[in-house]
Write a structure and sequence with these properties.
By secondary structure, the protein is α/β, with parallel strands linked by helices.
């Protein structure tokens, strides 16, 4: 369950006339709770005025169209109302825009310049470099049920023969085949390690992402499960793959999807769940918010208030209702929340309408099919149907999918279904990405040079080798 802040929704702006030339590329770095995101504004001039697009290279988002902004008296103002975002800055004689990025009442200094900013956290010593000591082939396979094409990479040992194989299943959010995030490529590192040790690996871009077709925004975990099933079918058609030794490795949400596929198929011979979940989505999110809040320095009272507010929100989502009814109930809930806040605690000029609008903007994701499905989804029934061997591992410092309660829930569900071929492990010192971490906070992800703990990869490899001998 990736919780990275996505401030970059629909940056739109138009620029009024100004004295200095503002066309071209402007680069900045947004720093939020230790996480750094590069932003690039590409501004063009036409007969009717100015137009622009925005890129977020570290999130793999490019060419986001822009509207609704102004540039007067050297002041640039940008507003994104549906995301409750504003940016205001002043262009100085040194050709640097000194400004502030604001979302939901929180402000972050962010300056823009013409100078291109190097990729943040670019020191990733584990990333493999070409030429690889194995075969690497870009492939395309079809999900005929969804009528989409999925693009990926199949890596196989150099020596001719048939090999056991795994399909890698990414976590939540649009991910490319390397599961690239925060300057890391976990699936590239993991596939390299496994293939060097005799296991073929298929990793692919999520539907609607990178080179894969389809609509990611309209999909839920159930839809993604059909993509994974199609990947398995593709492997079965490859003569280099041992059809009796095909497994699934799912990270985070991928740990939800893998049991969905395995429970309804005789073609899956083993599962590896990396930070997979065993509890219902709303319970997981509440635990996640509490743990991250604690390491972020929130007081016990703040944590309690946040939990109460979010519990109320999730209870509304848990109702089986349409999108418009959901939005109406959430607006009413936020209005009541505003009325319960002491006047002294409200920002100056904060009206009920403005408060509700700001909160609704921040909760926009609750109306998406994926989030509604995830909050309501209980992994246990799918796990109960899994009969193949399962390895479930979590990092002890994982604040997004807490290890103890999720591993216990996974083990209990598998046992209820009669599966005794189960290994669960809590790995000391590792976070949600299986990095060796200090606190486990998401703000550390980009700062840590390590992409994937060698100890964790070794656990996965040795367990798989026992299954495929």
């Amino acid at each position: 369950m990736k919780i990275f802040p996505l401030f970059l929704l629909a940056f739109l702006f138009t620029l009024a006339s100004f004295a200095q030339d503002i066309t071209g590329q402007w680069n900045g770095v947004l720093k939020v709770t230790g996480v750094q995101l590069r932003l690039v504004f590409n501004i063009k001039k036409s007969e009717t005025g100015y137009s622009a697009t925005m890129d977020s290279p570290d999130q793999g988002a490019f060419g986001i169209p822009a509207t609704a902004a102004s540039f007067e008296d050297d002041k640039l103002k940008v507003a994104i109302t549906n995301a409750n975002i504003t940016y205001e800055g002043t262009l100085g004689e040194d050709n640097i825009i000194i400004g502030v990025f604001n979302q939901g009442g929180q402000s972050f200094p962010m300056n823009l310049s013409r100078k291109e900013i190097a990729k943040l956290g670019s020191n990733r010593p584990q990333e493999p470099k070409k030429p690889f000591p194995y075969r690497s082939e870009d492939v395309i396979f079809e999900n005929s049920q969804a009528e989409i094409l999925l693009a990926g990479t199949l890596t196989m040992p150099e020596k001719e023969g048939t090999y056991p194989a795994v399909v890698l299943i990414s976590g939540s959010g649009p991910q490319n085949r390397d599961e690239e995030l925060m300057g890391h490529k976990p699936f590239l590192v993991l596939s390299d390690y496994l293939t060097k040790n005799g296991i073929a690996v298929l990793r692919f871009d999520d539907r609607g992402t990178a080179a894969s077709t389809g609509n990611f925004a309209a999909a839920t975990s159930v839809d993604f499960a059909t993509d994974v099933a199609s990947a398995v079918q593709y492997l079965q058609a490859r003569p280099e793959i041992d059809k009796s030794k095909i497994g699934l490795i799912g990270h985070s949400e991928g740990g939800i999807i893998a049991p969905m596929v395995a429970g309804g198929s005789d073609d899956i011979d083993f599962l590896v769940l990396l930070a997979g979940t065993g509890i219902r989505g709303d319970e997981l999110l509440l635990a996640q918010q509490r743990l991250i809040g604690e390491v972020s320095g929130m007081s016990p009272n703040q944590l309690e208030e946040s939990a109460m507010l979010n519990r109320g929100i999730f209870d509304i989502v848990l109702k089986d209702q349409g999108t418009e009814e959901l939005k109406g109930d959430l607006r009413n809930y936020m209005a009541q929340t505003y009325r319960n806040i002491p006047t002294a605690n409200l920002p100056s000029g904060m009206t009920e309408g403005k408060f509700v609008d700001e909160q609704m903007a921040q909760m926009a994701s609750l109306a998406t099919p994926w989030m509604q499905y995830f909050i309501k989804y209980d992994p246990a029934p799918a796990l109960e149907k899994v009969s193949c061997p399962v390895l479930a591992i979590n990092g002890e410092k994982d604040l997004q999918v807490p290890a103890k309660e999720n591993l216990e829930a996974i083990k209990a569900a598998l046992a209820k279904g009669g599966n005794t071929k189960v290994t669960t492990m809590e790995l000391p010192g590792l976070n949600h990405l299986f990095q060796e971490a200090k606190t486990g906070a998401p703000s550390e992800y980009a700062e840590i040079e390590q992409t994937f703990s060698p100890k964790a990869m070794e656990v996965v490899l040795e367990w798989i080798k026992e299954r495929v001998r």
